[in-house]
Write a structure and sequence with these properties.
The structure is a single chain. It is globular and about 50 Å long. The N and C termini lie close together (about 5 Å). A hairpin with a 7-residue loop joins β7 and β8. By secondary structure, the protein is an alpha/beta fold. It has a single domain, classed as Metallo-beta-lactamase, Chain A (4-Layer Sandwich), CATH 3.60.15.10. Helices cover about 20% and strands about 25% of the residues. Strands 6-5-4-3-2-1-14 form a 7-stranded mixed beta sheet. The structure holds D-malate (MLT), manganese (II) ion (MN) and zinc ion. The site of zinc ion has 8 residues, from α1.
Length: about 300
């Protein structure tokens, strides 16, 4: 299978429009060794023609323009996007649905919880009823598997994770299984598997099991430290409080991934405040030493 990283940043992207933090300021001024990034999403295909999109970023238009394999091929209106799977209902993962309004009905796979959010707090499903319409397909959050018509040779396993529903969700402070999920994507014919979880707040046993059994993992790379936004004077929000396990420190993502040996390890959904965006930083060197990669827009993984 081929995995295309369409976008690798957390909400806001990098640089963020109104941000003058150490990273955003330097990337704008061209004084940092790093790359700009759009908000996170991946596309997966086994035939390089029919694509399953994971999340729809507000930046989707530019992401599709940068990726010829998914662009129109036949007829006056066309797309390589055959279906969309949503990991949660966050703005950075769902706003792109509105940018796909000109097309045929969208085949959207998400949990009942995400469907609820997208019909109430952020009613994109309702709004799109007067444009392309949404065909919603409910997906499990107990780790059981399913396949998607039109996406050949792929099996998906979706399971609830501890992260956070968005601020507009009826369950922001009343978590439900299925507010956020992780997915194992398996190519049936080869048995190769990738685990994708851009929002991951806690390593529950089933998450650890997934990390230890897949060939490649693309996991939450939002923050380096728990209080990164607080110390930079940006916000009072702490990493775990908004559903993201930081990389450094005891019980952090690096320590977790040090216990994983069989998989290619890649961080995705990087916040603009994270020092790992600076490729010359000490933090980035620590990742290099641990064999952990940082996703960038346009990265392609062949499994
Ligand atoms: C998050 O995952 O916490 C988001 O990136 C927040 C947002 O989209 O504003
Ligand atoms: Mn996000
Ligand atoms: Zn910034």
């Amino acid at each position: 299978m081929k995995i295309r990283v369409l976008g690798s940043a957390a909400g806001g992207g990098f640089p963020q429009w109104n941000c003058n933090c150490h990273n955003c300021q330097r990337i704008r001024n061209n004084t940092m060794n790093g790359r700009t990034r759009t908000q996170s999403s991946i596309a997966v295909s086994t035939d390089n023609f029919n694509w399953l999109l994971f999340n729809t970023s507000p930046d989707i238009r530019a992401q599709l323009e940068a990726f010829p394999a998914i662009q129109p091929k036949n007829g006056i209106r066309d797309t390589g996007i055959k279906a969309i799977l949503l990991m949660d209902s966050q703005i950075d993962h769902t706003t792109g649905l509105l940018m796909l309004r000109e097309g045929k009905p969208l085949e959207v796979y998400c949990t009942e919880m995400v469907k609820q959010d997208l019909s109430t707090g952020f009613p994109t499903f309702k709004m799109l009823a007067d444009y392309c319409t949404i065909n919603h397909h409910s997906i499990p959050h107990d780790g059981s598997s399913f396949e998607i018509p039109g996406i050949n040779d792929l099996r998906l396993y979706t399971q609830a994770l501890k992260s956070k529903a968005p601020p507009y969700s009826p369950h922001r402070h009343d978590p439900h299984d299925g507010d956020n999920i992780g997915v194992i994507i398996e190519q049936i014919s080869t048995g190769k598997k990738v685990f994708y979880s851009p929002g991951l707040g806690e390593i529950e046993p089933h998450v650890l099991h997934a990390l230890q059994t897949v060939d490649c993992l693309l996991v939450d790379g939002t923050f380096w430290t728990e209080d990164e936004m607080v110390t930079q004077g940006i916000s009072q929000k702490r990493a775990r409080e908004i559903g993201h396990l930081p990389q450094s420190g005891a019980g952090g993502m690096i320590e977790v991934l040090n216990g994983v040996s069989q998989a290619r390890k890649i961080l995705i959904h990087i916040n603009n405040t994270n020092p790992i965006l600076d490729e010359d930083s000490n933090e980035r060197k620590q990742l290099d030493a641990a064999g952990i990669e940082v996703a960038y827009d346009g990265l392609e993984i062949d499994l």
